[in-house]
Amino acid sequence: MKKIFKSGGIQKILNSALLMLIFCSVSAQNSGFVKGDENYTLTLAFHKVDTMLVVVPHNYKISEQEKRTIENYVFWDQYQKKPIYVYKKETELASGDDLKHLQFYGPFCDFKIAEIQNIPIKQIPGGFWFNDEAFTNARNAFFYINDEANRLYTCKNSRQVFSQNTNYAAGYFQLYIFNGDDLYLSGKCSSKTGQAELNHITEMRKAYFKSVNTRYFNFELAKNLFSDSISQVISAEADLFLETLCATLHTDTSGLERMTTYVYKNMDDLRQFLSMSPLMSIYGKSIEPINHLSSFDMTVFKHETAHTIIGRKIGVQSNSFFCEGFAVYTGYSFDNRGYINDLDSARVHLDLLKKETIIGENHRFYSLPPLYAISGTFTKFIIGKIGIDAFKNIYAQENIKAAFQEKGFSLENLIAEFKNSLTKTNSDD
Fold it and tell me: Which pLDDT belongs to residue 65?
C-alpha cells in the first residue's frame, strides 16, 4: 500500500485498486459519518521524530516480518523523514524513554506497564474494552493515537493476528477497531476527556446494503443499486468466474472460505465505510476474503477477487509490481482485448520497465499508472517462459528478487528479453 501527498493532505494509493488516479477534489461528507482529518495531523506529528521506540509486551517476541510491516506504514517518506525504529520489550525501557514517542505493539492484554492504561481503551482478560463493549475475539485489533500525538497503539488480541491499520490506511481517524479483516468502528476519542464521536460501521451497513448470495460469495449491494438484473449477472457470472480463475492458476476451490464483496453506490461511500480520506482514489480494495467495489463493475470484482484467491491459494506477496501484475495477468484469460491493449501501452511506456521499478520502493509503482499494463504483460511473458507452477513457487517467496535468482532466472535478463520481444514485434509490424 503506497501513498503520496496531494493538495495539502495525504493521498494514499492503495495496492489493490485496478486503476489508481490522482483525486484532488474533496467530496461532500455523507450524513451520519463523523468527519476525519484528511491531513493526518496526529499521524504525521507522531512520526515526526528521528527515532521511534516500538514497545512490545514482556513475553512477546516480535518477528522480522512484523517489524517490516510496522516500518512500511510510513508512507510519506518522500516528504517527511522516516524515523529510525528501535524495538524494546516493556521490561527493557530505561529512564527517559517515556519522553520519546512510543508505539505499543502486540497483544494489548499482555502489557504490564502502567502507562498502557492512559487511553480510553482498557485492558480486560483476553482482550480490550471500549465504549461499554468487550472485544475478546482472537481476531480483534485496534489503532489509536493519543491527543498529544506521542503514543500510538497498534495492538491486537492474538500473536497470530496482524493489525489491519496498514490495509485501511488508518490515521484519517484517531481510532479504528477491527474484527479480523473487517472494520468494526472508527472515529475520535479524546485521551484527555474520553469524549467520543464514532462511526459504528457494522450497524451502519445494515441500513445501507442488501444481500445476494451465491455458492462462494456473499454480495452486499448498496440498496439503491439493487435490481433483479444485477442479481442475475452476479448469479450467472461470479461462481463460474471463480472456478475458471482457479483452473487458470492450476488450483481449485477447496478450502476457500466464503468471500464477501461490498458494492457501494459510489467512491465517496466506499471511502466513508472504510474510514479513509476523501483524497484517496479507490475503485476496488481487497482485504483477504473481503472485497470492496466503488460501483457495480464485474471487471473490478474479478481483479479484486484474483488478489483474494492468489493470497489464499498461492501466497501473499508484498512486492507491488508482481502483486498487481499477477492479478492483472489473470484477467487476460477472460479478456484477450485487454491483453492486447496492455501490450500497446507497455510498448509506449517501455522505458518505465527497469529493475529498480520492480524491486525498488513500492510507492514508485502506484505513482505511475502505466505500470499496471507493464506488470501484467511482463508477468504473462514470464509465465509463458517458465510456466505457471514455477512462477507460483517464486511468487510465494517473501523475497521475490532472491527467489528469481535461486531458480536461475535473472530479472535483468528477463526484462531485456521482454523488451526485445516487444521491439521485435514492432519491427515485424
Answer: 84
Q: At what angle do helices 411-428 and 371-386 cross, to 10 degrees?
A: 100
How far lies 206's CA from each of 222, 223, 263, in Å? 10, 10, 13
Give exposure, 130-169, as e/b (b: 16+ Cβ within 10 Å): bbeeebeeebbbbbbbbeebbbbbbbbbebebbbbbbbbb
Which region among 25-34, 348-357, 389-398 has the lowest average model confidence (pLDDT)? 25-34
Cα(21)–Cα(283) distance, integer angstroms:
9
Which residues are CB-contacts of 275 (< 8 A; sequence separation ≥ 6)? Answer: 36, 168, 170, 172, 173, 176, 183, 186, 199, 201
CA proximity to 420, closest of 341, 347, 315: 347
Q: Give the rounded percent of residues in the chain with a pLDDT score beyond 90.
A: 73
Separation between Cα atoms, residue 397 and residue 249, nearest integer Å? 17
3-state secondary structure of 239: helix
CA 355 vs CA 51, 302, 311, 361, 412: distances in Å: 31, 28, 24, 11, 6
Q: Are 260 and 220 in contact (CB under 8 A)?
A: yes
pTM, to two decimals? 0.85
Q: Average pLDDT over the chain, rounded to whole?
A: 88
Q: Find, among 380, 291, 292, the residue nearest to 335 by Cα.
A: 380
Per the CB < 8 A criterion, the answer to whether 30 and 199 are in contact is no
Beta-carbon contacts of 266 under 8 Å, excluding residues fewer than 6 positions away, are 294, 295
Q: What is the pLDDT of residues 266-323, one digit of tens each?
A: 999 999 999 999 988 889 999 989 999 999 999 999 999 999 999 999 998 989 999 9
In whole angstroms, how far apart are CA 251 and each of 74, 122, 246, 314, 404? Answer: 35, 44, 5, 9, 22
CB–CB of 62/106 below 8 Å?
yes
State the pLDDT confidence band at 363, using cuts at 50, 70 and 90.
low
For residue 149, what pLDDT band results from cuts at 50, 70 and 90? very high
CA dist 210 and 202 (Å) reads 14
> C-alpha distances in angstroms, 340 versus 111, 139, 332, 343?
55, 43, 9, 5
Q: Of 204, 327, 209, which Cα lies nearest the Cα of 260?
A: 209
Distances (CA, A) of 93 to 53, 109, 231: 10, 18, 57
